[in-house]
Batch of 4 targets.
Target 1
Amino acid sequence: MAAKNQSWGAIKSILNKQTKADIIKLVSELYSLSKSNSDFLSARYVLSPDTIDRYKKEIKKYLGPDEPWKKNTQISLSSAKKVLSDYKKATNDEFSIIDLMIYYVEVGNDFTCEYGDMYEQYYISLESVFDQAIALTKKHDETMVYHFIERLYFIVRKANGLGWGYYDALHDSFSKSYPEFTA
């Protein structure tokens, strides 16, 4: 750990001596170096539908791929969660983070509705992200996040009948936070 801090200290010292043009050139090179770098910088500085759509596409690939048996595709909860984590680190836009979190649960919900019951850890992951999304919506006035609340409610309704206590967990979490939406 000390070596990492010493390395960053040395880099930081050098960066502090660079010109603005040098820093821009370095960031440009980092942007071109990898897709994850370009995605991070786009999410940080260019908040657009295209930016979040790239993250959504990745979540879909890992959490709810189309016809996975045809492409021999494996579900990867850790990869899907990493996409969420990377996006959270890249942006401070809480509304787009809520959108991506709800999308995560929507994809998982739709996948299990389409292809059948999943394993317990899959549902636990969806429940966890669902709860985090609710916690973030509760930080805002309901009128500002109403469209998110509607999406969360639709997820709960669609999950009715799904396994491992998944529906019950979503319903309980949602009704405790938004009792006026559940009758």
Target 2
Amino acid sequence: MHVGTKVGLAVLFLTGALWAQSNSLMGIWKLNSAQSTFDPGPPPKSVTVKYEPHGKDGVRITVDTIDARGILTHAVYTAKYDGKDNAVKGDSSRDTVALKRIDPYTMEVTNKERGKVTTINTIIVSKDGRTRTDTIRGTNSQGQRVNNVAVFEKQQGFSVKN
């Protein structure tokens, strides 16, 4: 194998490894209701969140929620970690979202409805990548203060293909 090819493959492998490390959220996450607190309640029956790579440096996020009454919400959006607003489809509590990466394990999500910030969600992934904790603060669409701590467990991750 040519030396240039070996160097190219090494760079590709390292880039892939760094991408996987810096994208600790990639994969499928399920809410652990027993470890979570919702104020105001009641808590949802279930929440599943799927993070997928999108484009060069973006992410596609799909959130499936079954609320306490059994009503399913399917929300989808794509965004980059640039702090800019992106449209959310299928979620009545927000119409835009802005993502900001704080570090490889921490992300901030700013949710807005009609241009007004409603909640800010700080997501912290554990160093082993198995759990994440979402701290959600703000005001819901009924005008109630929101003070939630949602704990998620990783169900499946995405591998980097070289």
Target 3
Amino acid sequence: MIRGIHHINFLVRDLDAAIERYERLLGVAVDRVAELPGRGVRIGRFRAGNSWIALVQPIAAGEPMRHLERYGEGFYLISYRVDDVEAAAAAVRRAGGRTTSDSPRTGLDGWRVIDLDPADAGGLILQLCEDDAWGEGL
């Protein structure tokens, strides 16, 4: 079911400062900055091998903002690449796991994601991600 790591999110308080720091210290090029109003976040992303790294700045009330306030900057979630997010979520449910919603939501660049219940993952925030454009630009 899992084909790899699609993306890893890190929460930051100031996206512009985080982008400057990552580009300077790690020699990466953030190739896309976007706002997801439905999630209340701004995101900057870059490739790390066959995966994406997303720097996420909460800009509105919601779960990402609560997480940042509670735990501070740093690791937020890991997203596993799957071929079919609905089929993968159904497999998780058949195995006794839960998802936080019945259907996927649309993320950056049309990524289709569904979150697993953190209680089923030792408190970690995990998600499944389907990306029709996966591999383009690698």
Target 4
Amino acid sequence: MSGKGKEQTRLVRMLIASCIACALASPQAQADENLWGYTYGSETLPKGGWEFYQWATWRTGKAEGTYDAVDLRTEFEYGITDRFQASGYLNTVYQNINNTGTNAFAFQGVSLEFKYALTSPYKDPIGVALYFEPSYSRVDKESGQSGTEYELEPKIIVQKNFLEDQLIAAVNLTAEFEWERFPDNAPTEREL
């Protein structure tokens, strides 16, 4: 491994260790229910409530060559009203892509998230929420190339609680609109 690759690997390890140390050192740290990895529930934070999340997702394997990536998303979530919450994300990525020579840790981009609860799964027969997430990325997830990606992700979230809230079912109806240009001088691609 080159000196630059060793330095970037060391930086990733330091970032992960720092996040763990901060979480363990905070006397007020609490864990809340995150029932599903990528499926959202319809409930929102109460007014003035806040949460901090650190997401880490490892992606590995491609048809050819060696591919490893770790997506790190730092999220701060805040309850603006009892029905409306907003979140901000800072997104970073570490990629080691053998066939392209990419071995880098980079700031990837930012995301915002807005969720508005129309009904509550605790007070109404079903909970329904509207969700909207705009994102900006500057590093391609698959290739590691620099460029530009804009994404809009609207959702309708439906949640039903059963057995005095001991059994919870949720469905997310999602669309994802993307406009990307990797590298910067390539034509813009649109995806749905």
